[in-house]
Amino acid sequence: MRDPTQLYAQPPFKEQKQPWPGLARDMEPRPDHGEDSYQGSNRLAGRKALITGGDSGIGRAAAIAYAREGADVAINYLPDEEPDAQAVVELIRQAGRKAVALPGDIRDEGFCRRLIDQAVEQLGGLDILVNNAARQQSHASILDISNEQFDWTLKTNLYAMFWITKAAVPHMPPGSAIINTSSVTTYDPPVNLLDYSMTKAGIVNFSKGLAKQLIEKGVRVNAVAPGPFWTPLQVAGGQTMENLKTFGKDTPMGRPGQPAEIAPLYVQLASTEASYVTGQVFGASGGNGQP
Ligand code: NAD
Ligand code: MG
């Protein structure tokens, strides 16, 4: 038993800025993805999972947990993130599971189709899809968001999710699960994340609608809506420096979450134990937030 308010790093945080997309390796303090703590109990034995953005942050925490629960895991990430990705590949292998590394930019529809083809081929099938990759850049005003930035955010967060899911569905047998990462910003959009927040709201809507379609195939679809988590997204342009220094302080918990603290939700939603759970949104926001 431990008091959750006393776990992990507390604000204030050191000023830090990395070029996008950022590496977990270079954050101070280093995020906790469950490397030294997550213990599996065979809840996903024999399952085959693809996680986008599986190199760092919330996606890495899900990848570690899935592997330790007995799943083979493919991760997608950007080529610049190879050092983070290799660390995850190593952790999946240490768990005794197959690791598949599939770098590439999901803003490209052709790549999204190849990503699914390669994941299916190398895993020998696909029954868990986690759409988790995202673009988040802080802009004070709508006037500062160029069409190029707007397009970048929507391509990454919405188009890619649509393309990847569309390619994946024909391969997914009954019992499969799709989990999309939304955000607390769906319900309370911050002043500086206009384009990002609208995509995160779209992800909730997409998840609920798709759940109604895919249950006919025996496939469940849910979304996770995290609050503030200590990940590269936040130090690579995702926050103002002021927000970063006090990151998570405005939650009742008084600190940000660490990726390890949200991985159990991704396990639960993928597991057959949650067989009646579909079309739902699960939050982890340190006491704020809705779904
Ligand atoms: P992260 O930076 O560790 O993960 C995001 C990943 O997205 C990157 O690792 C990168 O691999 C991937 N990505 C971005 N653009 C890509 C592209 N064009 N092609 C391929 N991959 C691309 O940060 P995170 O916070 O763990 O983010 C994971 C998810 O959690 C995102 O959907 C994010 O919106 C969501 N989220 C995060 C927070 C938070 O506070 N950290 C809060 C709410 C929601
Ligand atoms: Mg990353």
From TrEMBL:
<protein>
    <recommendedName>
        <fullName>Uncharacterized oxidoreductase YghA</fullName>
    </recommendedName>
</protein>
<dbReference type="InterPro" id="IPR036291">
    <property type="entry name" value="NAD(P)-bd_dom_sf"/>
</dbReference>
<dbReference type="InterPro" id="IPR020904">
    <property type="entry name" value="Sc_DH/Rdtase_CS"/>
</dbReference>
<feature type="compositionally biased region" description="Basic and acidic residues">
    <location>
        <begin position="25"/>
        <end position="36"/>
    </location>
</feature>
<feature type="region of interest" description="Disordered">
    <location>
        <begin position="1"/>
        <end position="42"/>
    </location>
</feature>
<comment type="similarity">
    <text>Belongs to the short-chain dehydrogenases/reductases (SDR) family.</text>
</comment>
<dbReference type="Pfam" id="PF13561">
    <property type="entry name" value="adh_short_C2"/>
</dbReference>
<dbReference type="GO" id="GO:0016614">
    <property type="term" value="F:oxidoreductase activity, acting on CH-OH group of donors"/>
</dbReference>
<keyword id="KW-0560">Oxidoreductase</keyword>
<dbReference type="InterPro" id="IPR002347">
    <property type="entry name" value="SDR_fam"/>
</dbReference>
